[in-house]
Amino acid sequence: MAPPISRSDAFRTIPPRKLNDALIKTLKNCSTCGQNGAKLNNACQNCNTINTAIARCAEANIPVRFWNLRMADFKGNKVLKEKYDELTGDINKTYDEGVCICFAGGHGVGKSMTVSNVLRKAVPRGYTCLYVTLSDIVSNAVSNSGHDKFLARRELMMVDFLVIDEFDPRHMTEGASSDLFGRQMEDIFRRRSENKLPLLMCTNSPNVVESFSGPIRQSIDSLMSYATIVPVIGRDFRKGGA
Predict the structure, then answer these.
(1) Residue 56 CB neighbour total at 10 angstroms
(2) Which of 26, 142, 162, 179, by CA, is between 20 and 30 Å from 57?
(3) Chain centroid to CA 11
(4) Model pTM?
């Protein structure tokens, strides 16, 4: 068996208390554990199963608000539901083919929920998964030490399933640093493509390439050549409930 990849702390943004509260809540809601005062170390099998799934969500850095949202209840754009069903109908095939997709649409249409649920299907099957935003990646490149940057870049290249959310230019700066970052991202995309590793992106820009400017635009254009762009149209469910 291949050794596990090193996971970077730079991409771990789930508050520990939120994770612990979610684990405890599972026990409190259980008719067995809730009555006998069970703790996390002696919970029933059903609670352990539920909490294992929650812990895997946290390890994958999936935002807390998506831990309990199911695509079965999704009432948004049917394109997202269809793509979700296609990607998760045979998650092993999705991994083997190294699918690369960019969901492009407005705020709150369900893009983040969809890709988070894809990761939630992959982690129980033993795949390493990571949810990050472009802002997370930029912050690591700008702020962290050389060793931390190395670990983070390696994880972005080697994790089995990678989600990059909020892929738009508001997180980018102008100038030489932007150009360098663009070329580094292009290298990560190229390595993932060569190794047939799945990549799912979400952007609020209808035309992700046109939304960038300056030297980085050429790199983004090259990045998008690896991806299938899936337009998503719909209302903002955060304003009216999904």
Answers:
(1) 16
(2) 142
(3) 11
(4) 0.88
> Would you place residue 235 in the very low, low, confident or very high pLDDT band (cuts 50, 70, 90)?
low
Which range scores top for mean pLDDT: 5-9, 28-32, 141-145, 168-172? 28-32
Q: Which is it for the CA torsion 178, 180, 183, 185, positive or negative? A: negative
At the topology level, CATH places domain 68-235 in Rossmann fold (3.40.50)
Q: Are 165 and 119 contacting, i.e. CB atoms less than 8 angstroms apart?
A: no
| Each residue's pLDDT tens digit, 11-44 | 899 999 999 999 999 999 999 998 888 899 999 9
Q: Are 183 and 219 in contact (CB under 8 A)?
A: yes
Distance of alpha carbon 17 from alpha carbon 14, whole angstroms? 9
Strand 129-133's sheet: what is its strand order?
129-133, 161-165, 199-203, 100-105, 228-232
Sequence-ordered list of residues with C-beta below 8 angstroms from that of 68, at least 6 positions apart, any chain: none
Looking at residue 62, what DSSP letter applies? -
One-letter amino acid at 92 equals: N
Domain ranges of the chain: 15-59, 68-235
Return d(Cα 106, Cα 21) in angstroms, integer. Answer: 32
Is the predicted pLDDT of residue 127 greater than 50, yes or no? yes
Tokens representing residue 108 in the block = 């709150």
